[in-house]
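Class, look over these C-alpha coordinates:
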Amino acid sequence: QVQLVESGGGLVQAGGSLRLSCVVSGITFRFRAMNWYRQAPGKQRELVAVITSGGETSYADFVKGRFTISRDNAKNTVWLHMNSLKPEDTAVYYCNLPTNYWGKGTLVTVSS
Protein backbone atom coordinates (compact mmCIF):
# COMPACT_ATOMS: atom_id res chain seq x y z
CA GLN A 1 0.00 0.00 0.00
CA VAL A 2 1.47 3.31 -1.10
CA GLN A 3 1.49 6.05 1.52
CA LEU A 4 2.74 9.63 1.40
CA VAL A 5 2.90 11.59 4.64
CA GLU A 6 3.71 15.29 4.60
CA SER A 7 4.85 17.40 7.52
CA GLY A 8 6.49 20.73 8.23
CA GLY A 9 3.78 23.23 7.43
CA GLY A 10 2.88 26.09 9.71
CA LEU A 11 2.56 29.82 10.14
CA VAL A 12 5.50 31.99 9.11
CA GLN A 13 6.04 35.68 8.48
CA ALA A 14 6.75 36.99 5.00
CA GLY A 15 10.42 36.58 4.20
CA GLY A 16 10.72 33.52 6.39
CA SER A 17 11.51 29.90 5.61
CA LEU A 18 9.98 26.48 6.07
CA ARG A 19 10.98 22.96 5.12
CA LEU A 20 8.30 20.48 4.11
CA SER A 21 8.94 16.76 4.29
CA CYS A 22 7.21 13.84 2.59
CA VAL A 23 7.93 10.29 3.65
CA VAL A 24 6.91 7.66 1.12
CA SER A 25 6.27 3.98 1.72
CA GLY A 26 5.00 1.06 -0.29
CA ILE A 27 7.11 1.63 -3.41
CA THR A 28 10.72 1.42 -4.59
CA PHE A 29 11.26 5.10 -3.95
CA ARG A 30 14.62 5.53 -5.64
CA PHE A 31 13.17 4.65 -9.05
CA ARG A 32 10.39 7.23 -8.95
CA ALA A 33 10.07 10.92 -9.70
CA MET A 34 8.31 13.00 -7.06
CA ASN A 35 6.36 16.24 -7.20
CA TRP A 36 5.18 18.96 -4.85
CA TYR A 37 1.89 20.68 -5.65
CA ARG A 38 -0.03 23.37 -3.84
CA GLN A 39 -3.61 24.57 -3.68
CA ALA A 40 -4.54 28.01 -2.42
CA PRO A 41 -8.07 28.79 -1.22
CA GLY A 42 -10.41 29.12 -4.17
CA LYS A 43 -7.74 28.19 -6.69
CA GLN A 44 -6.79 25.11 -8.65
CA ARG A 45 -4.01 22.82 -7.55
CA GLU A 46 -0.74 23.77 -9.24
CA LEU A 47 2.61 22.10 -9.73
CA VAL A 48 5.40 23.64 -7.68
CA ALA A 49 8.47 21.45 -8.16
CA VAL A 50 9.62 18.15 -9.63
CA ILE A 51 12.55 15.91 -8.85
CA THR A 52 13.37 12.94 -11.06
CA SER A 53 14.72 9.60 -9.88
CA GLY A 54 18.13 10.84 -10.98
CA GLY A 55 17.87 14.02 -8.95
CA GLU A 56 17.15 16.48 -11.75
CA THR A 57 14.87 19.29 -10.64
CA SER A 58 12.46 21.75 -12.19
CA TYR A 59 10.33 24.52 -10.75
CA ALA A 60 7.32 26.65 -11.47
CA ASP A 61 8.31 30.17 -12.38
CA PHE A 62 6.61 31.58 -9.32
CA VAL A 63 9.01 29.73 -6.95
CA LYS A 64 12.25 29.69 -8.94
CA GLY A 65 15.14 30.97 -6.91
CA ARG A 66 13.19 30.66 -3.65
CA PHE A 67 12.24 26.98 -3.31
CA THR A 68 14.43 23.90 -3.56
CA ILE A 69 13.27 20.30 -3.93
CA SER A 70 15.55 17.52 -2.75
CA ARG A 71 15.41 13.84 -1.90
CA ASP A 72 17.14 11.18 0.17
CA ASN A 73 16.55 7.73 -1.29
CA ALA A 74 17.90 6.03 1.83
CA LYS A 75 15.17 7.72 3.87
CA ASN A 76 12.38 7.49 1.26
CA THR A 77 11.93 11.20 1.76
CA VAL A 78 11.49 14.24 -0.45
CA TRP A 79 11.75 17.78 0.91
CA LEU A 80 10.64 21.20 -0.23
CA HIS A 81 12.83 23.95 1.17
CA MET A 82 10.98 27.24 0.97
CA ASN A 83 12.78 30.56 1.44
CA SER A 84 11.73 34.19 1.03
CA LEU A 85 8.13 33.19 1.55
CA LYS A 86 5.40 35.53 0.39
CA PRO A 87 1.76 35.80 1.48
CA GLU A 88 0.78 34.45 -1.94
CA ASP A 89 2.60 31.21 -1.09
CA THR A 90 -0.16 30.47 1.42
CA ALA A 91 -1.66 27.12 0.41
CA VAL A 92 -2.00 23.49 1.26
CA TYR A 93 1.09 21.74 -0.08
CA TYR A 94 0.79 18.20 -1.36
CA CYS A 95 3.37 15.56 -2.07
CA ASN A 96 2.63 13.60 -5.25
CA LEU A 97 3.91 10.33 -6.62
CA PRO A 98 3.02 10.54 -10.29
CA THR A 99 0.40 10.21 -11.22
CA ASN A 100 -2.20 8.96 -8.82
CA TYR A 101 -0.77 8.98 -5.32
CA TRP A 102 -1.16 11.96 -3.02
CA GLY A 103 -0.52 12.84 0.57
CA LYS A 104 -3.14 14.56 2.69
CA GLY A 105 -1.33 17.87 2.50
CA THR A 106 0.24 20.28 4.94
CA LEU A 107 -0.92 23.86 5.39
CA VAL A 108 1.51 26.72 4.91
CA THR A 109 0.34 30.16 5.98
CA VAL A 110 2.49 33.21 5.28
CA SER A 111 1.51 36.38 7.10
CA SER A 112 2.32 39.84 5.80
About this structure: The chain has no helices and eleven strands. The mean pLDDT is 97. The CA atoms of residues 2 and 101 lie 7 Å apart.
